[in-house]
Design goal:
heterodimer; A: about 250 residues; alpha/beta; Rossmann fold; 6-stranded mixed sheet; 3-stranded antiparallel sheet; 9 helices; globular; B: about 270 residues; mainly alpha
Chain lengths: ~250, ~270
């Protein structure tokens, strides 16, 4: 019996029209359009990428900057629909994003736990019942009623991590392994991440840390110019990538 | 278990509205967040949101009533006429810019977490509507000073609020795209909003306008919202059936058009960020 597939991506592509020169002002765009100077080109951020992730698997995605790693993560997170091909994702998806990006500095820690958790797809009611537990895990029980603008960055990171990892999702998306807070917290958060990986969720990990790829993942995909150049055994894929980088 | 299939057919507008409805828990939280941040943390609380429209009204009242000695032709009192204009334009400006800001500044989260950005636009419009409702309290007081009371049909103001919520939600989605794409769109929109404000009879009666200007002002959808609001709440201005047509039509066009264009453009924004 094969394990349940959490992600099934078939021939996924993402193409968009981009201007040859980066234009970021309305004035410039208007002038260029009138003068017919706008030159567009079709750009493939991803092209024909297929892969599966089964429950319990950790798939690492590696490649140079601009190879399409973050685009792939956005497509798996369903933030971005592919322009062709198909992706199916089953179950609750939890992205681990820059910690605290969903926080509002004027709200208290307790209010932020509920808001952030709801942004990540849980219900406000469920989150209200989890405030105590999350505060306890992050060691911030004393500070629940304080607006988080008074928090240090370490405290904010602890709170965000605890909220994001409160439940084990079906699919965990990690963009770079987190290294925030003091050594104590780093250890605790790394342990929680491993616990989630072993706790029956599927993981897609995007990283530049080749040691992490080899030690944490069951499979790796090497993206180059939007296409999957190699995939399979992490050690072999890392080797293929490194030999490309060095040439 | 929820299943996401990228090839499942999504009907624009309908699927977006459904997703706002499905996430009404989040919508409520966002509205509460907006109001909490504004009220709970300030010393004078709820009245803080009224300070701005009341001060604006006071300044304009001094300038136009005392300095220019403007009078309304039908003898309606100027102060409630002015305050209702200021409250309505504040409702529009706030709903529009707060919604677009929320999406543009939240782009960091919205490009990584699956949350429909439309919810942010809707929450901004709804919290501005709540501010507007609070503003009806001083308006009632000022009507009272002139020995007037809200009309018996004042609940029709709800129609103005609902239409304005749809109107600003749709428009703020379009504006958010401009905010993300173009760095100069914020200053351009401010100039546009200023022009729009002058094209809305906030502090002048329509009768002072020449025929050509009047034609343009009547085409401004905000004119219709304002006429209906003034008529239905304090009876300080007449409104016509065509005002109602304009209000309902503009809100539906902005809402459906805004949602539709946004559903096409947003993926392109996400791809580039």
């Amino acid at each position: 019996m094969t394990a349940e597939l959490i992600v099934e991506a078939t021939d996924v592509a993402l193409a968009y029209r981009r201007t040859r020169h980066r234009v970021s002002s309305l004035k410039q765009t208007a002038i260029d359009t009138i003068k017919r100077r706008m030159a567009y080109e079709q750009f493939y951020a991803l092209n024909g990428v297929s892969f599966d992730v089964a429950r319990g698997e950790t798939v690492s995605v590696i490649g140079r900057n601009g190879a399409g790693k973050s685009t792939l993560l956005k497509i798996v997170a369903r933030v971005l629909p592919p322009t062709s091909g198909r992706i199916i994702v089953r179950g609750h998806v939890a992205p681990m994003i820059e910690l605290g990006a969903g926080f509002n500095p004027e709200l208290t820690a307790a209010e932020n736990i509920v808001l952030y958790g709801t942004l990540l797809g849980r219900t406000p009611k469920e989150m209200r019942g989890r405030i105590e537990a999350i505060a306890d895990w992050s060691g911030l029980t004393e500070h629940l009623d304080i607006p988080i603008r008074a928090f240090s960055s370490g405290m904010t990171a602890r709170l965000a991590f605890a909220t994001a990892t409160d439940v084990t999702p079906d699919l965990l998306l990690i963009d770079e392994v987190l290294s925030v807070g003091d050594a104590d917290f780093r250890e605790k958060s790394a342990a929680r991440t491993v616990e989630m990986m072993n706790g029956g969720c599927a993981v897609v990990l995007v990283t530049h840390d080749m040691e992490a790829v080899k030690s944490m993942s069951t499979r790796a995909i090497y993206l180059s110019n939007g296409a999957a150049k190699h995939s399979g055994n992490p050690a072999e894929v890392v080797e293929a990538y490194l030999s490309d980088v060095h040439h | 278990m929820q299943v996401y299939d990228s090839s499942a057919r999504q009907i624009p507008v309908i699927s977006q509205v459904k997703s706002i409805y499905d996430n009404r828990g989040l919508l409520r939280l966002l509205v509460v967040r907006d109001l909490t941040v504004r009220y709970k943390r300030s010393v004078i609380g709820v009245w803080w949101s009224l300070l701005n429209p009341l001060f604006t009204t006071a300044v304009m009242f001094y300038v136009f009533n005392t300095v220019f000695k403007s009078r309304l032709p039908d003898g309606a009192p100027f102060l409630p006429y002015l305050l209702s204009g200021v409250l309505l334009i504040t409702l529009f400006n706030q709903g529009l810019t707060m919604g677009a800001d929320a999406i543009a500044t939240g782009a960091g989260v919205l490009t990584k977490v699956y949350v429909r950005p439309e919810i942010f636009a809707a929450s901004a419009s709804i919290s501005s509507a709540i501010n507007f409702l609070i503003g009806l309290v001083p308006l009632t007081v000022i009507l009272g000073i002139y020995k007037r009371t809200p009309t018996w049909h004042f609940p029709l103001v709800i129609a103005v609020i609902v239409c304005m919520t749809l109107f600003t939600t749709g428009l703020s989605l379009l504006l958010s795209i401009a905010y993300v794409y173009f760095d100069d769109s914020r200053s351009l929109i401010n100039i546009f909003l200023m022009a729009l404000q002058y094209m809305t009879p906030i502090f002048y009666p329509v009768s002072v306008l020449g025929p050509h200007t009047k034609d343009v002002v009547v085409l401004n959808p905000l004119f219709a919202y304002l006429q209906i609001f003034r008529r239905e709440f304090g009876n300080v201005s007449p409104s016509t059936f065509s005002n109602w047509e304009m209000m309902v039509a503009s809100s539906l066009v902005a809402f459906v058009g805004g949602f539709y264009i946004f559903s096409r453009q947003w993926p392109k924004v996400v791809a580039k960020l």
